[in-house]
């Protein structure tokens, strides 16, 4: 394989590129994850039975995508081009993700079986394209930033601006869809136009991760790896395995995002109320994402993630006890759970990056691709489980568009976004007890943020 002449890129320029790329990517992902069920129920005319089929399609596709993530990571680690092993996939996946995102919100007006077939094909293709863009993006963060302090700071900002993108999508997409409906009411066509427009813009920003970054060049990073080497080092990476197990058990953290838009329709009769719920969790996530790198200068990642899990469990249980009748109380609880979620997401990615460095030190192998594929792997499993569980609670409650809302229906769905996350957070804390890497990091200001990167290619 050819190798490009080394060209260094300033760390600050790389940081801005990666953070902006993550913002664009997260806007697209949030739009699809948050509004897809609402679109299918309210505008595509899918019945309760059809939603049951949709949840099965989404769950099966996400599990399939998750299984493909390590395959994608392996392909990345075996790739050698003049652009490196990660950046080419970022370049060639952006447009397919944008187009398929729009198609998901363009279900044709036909019989329900054909609608479900259309949705299933588009969703499977979307998941495949998103895998191709997401795995190398997170691997690039680990590769481009050799300094752990700078890397932790970038991860925090990627998570923070990702939460801001989540907020802008959550708050803005319903209004943009209504605006592009060109009438007094929101239509399915309005949603289609809004998603096409924002997806193309978001993935255009994502391309900055290709143009303005360079991958790290080390002996371990530039050596071709076999599948056997990759699998062996992955299995021997016990800290990484503990992060993965703890993450999967904590899938309940994603239930508010997976089902919050539907819940507010059932509980409050207005999907616009989700803008308040979304704003509360997003503000919490943004604050936590910016401050977690500072906390990591005083507290180990292990202690911080366990504490956030236990506090999160208590908050979800408290929210269930408080009930949903008082929206202001719910918003306070949602904000606080957003803080714990933001902490978890930053520490999770930081722990995986540290485990990659640890394997390189111990075994002489740098496997960014397959290791960070596990991050996207568990994220998809967590999302799949969240959608599946929430979908099952919807079916159990008997909700579909146009039915009479009952207190039993409301309480059933409310339990899905409170009690399930509480139990999930408690279980999530257990594997992290066995994570042994690292301690408090140097303060974020201890290292410069204006130097040049070590990455080339």
From TrEMBL:
Residue stretches in coiled coil: none
InterPro entries for this protein: MFS_2, MFS_trans_sf, Na/Gal_symport
The keyword ATP-binding appears for this protein: no
Keyword presence, Transport: yes
Keywords assigned by UniProt, alphabetized: Membrane, Symport, Transmembrane, Transmembrane helix, Transport
Pfam family, one: MFS_2
Record-annotated membrane-spanning stretches: 16-40, 46-68, 89-105, 117-146, 158-177, 189-211, 240-268, 274-296, 303-322, 328-351, 372-399, 411-435
Protein origin, superkingdom: Bacteria
NCBIfam families in UniProt: gph
Protein name per its UniProtKB record: Sugar (Glycoside-pentoside-hexuronide) transporter
Protein source organism: Conyzicola nivalis
């Amino acid at each position: 394989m050819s190798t490009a002449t080394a060209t260094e890129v300033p760390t600050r320029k790389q940081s801005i590129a990666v953070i902006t790329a993550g913002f664009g990517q997260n806007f697209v992902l949030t739009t699809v994850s948050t509004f897809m069920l609402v679109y299918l129920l309210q505008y595509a005319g899918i019945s309760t039975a059809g939603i049951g089929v949709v949840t099965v399609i989404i769950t099966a596709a996400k599990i399939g995508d998750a299984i493909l993530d390590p395959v994608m990571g392996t392909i990345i680690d075996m790739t050698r081009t003049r652009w490196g092993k990660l950046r080419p996939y970022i370049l060639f996946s952006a447009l397919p993700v944008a187009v398929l995102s729009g198609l998901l919100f363009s279900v044709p007006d036909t019989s329900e079986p054909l609608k479900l077939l259309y949705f299933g094909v588009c969703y499977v293709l979307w998941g495949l394209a998103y895998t191709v863009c997401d795995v190398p993006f997170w691997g690039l963060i680990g590769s481009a930033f050799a300094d752990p302090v700078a890397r932790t700071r970038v991860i925090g900002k990627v998570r923070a601006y990702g939460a801001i993108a989540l907020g802008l999508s959550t708050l803005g997409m319903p209004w943009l869809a209504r605006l592009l409906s060109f009438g007094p009411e929101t239509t399915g066509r309005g949603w289609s136009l809004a998603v096409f427009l924002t997806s193309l813009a978001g993935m255009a920003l994502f391309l900055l991760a290709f143009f303005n970054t360079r991958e790290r060049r080390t002996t371990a990073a530039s050596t071709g790896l076999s599948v056997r080497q990759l699998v062996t080092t992955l299995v021997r990476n016990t800290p990484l395995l503990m992060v993965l197990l703890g993450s999967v058990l904590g899938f309940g953290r994603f239930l508010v995002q997976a089902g919050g838009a539907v819940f507010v329709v059932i509980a409050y009769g207005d999907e616009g109320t989700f803008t308040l719920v979304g704003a509360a969790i997003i503000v919490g996530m943004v604050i936590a994402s910016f401050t977690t790198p500072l906390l990591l200068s005083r507290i180990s990642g292990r202690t911080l993630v366990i504490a956030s899990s236990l506090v999160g469990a208590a908050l979800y249980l408290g929210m269930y006890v408080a009930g949903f009748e008082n929206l202001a109380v719910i918003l306070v609880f949602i904000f606080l759970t957003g803080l714990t979620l933001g902490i978890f997401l930053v520490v999770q990615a930081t722990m995986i990056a540290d485990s990659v460095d640890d394997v390189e030190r111990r075994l002489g192998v740098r496997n960014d691709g397959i290791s960070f594929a596990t991050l996207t792997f568990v994220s998809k499993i967590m999302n799949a489980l969240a959608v599946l569980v929430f979908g099952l609670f919807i079916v159990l409650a008997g909700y579909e568009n146009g039915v009479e809302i009952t207190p039993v229906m409301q309480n059933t769905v409310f339990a899905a976004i409170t009690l399930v996350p509480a139990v999930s957070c408690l279980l999530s804390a257990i594997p992290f007890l066995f994570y042994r890497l690292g301690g408090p990091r140097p303060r974020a200001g201890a290292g410069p943020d204006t130097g040049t990167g070590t990455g080339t290619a």
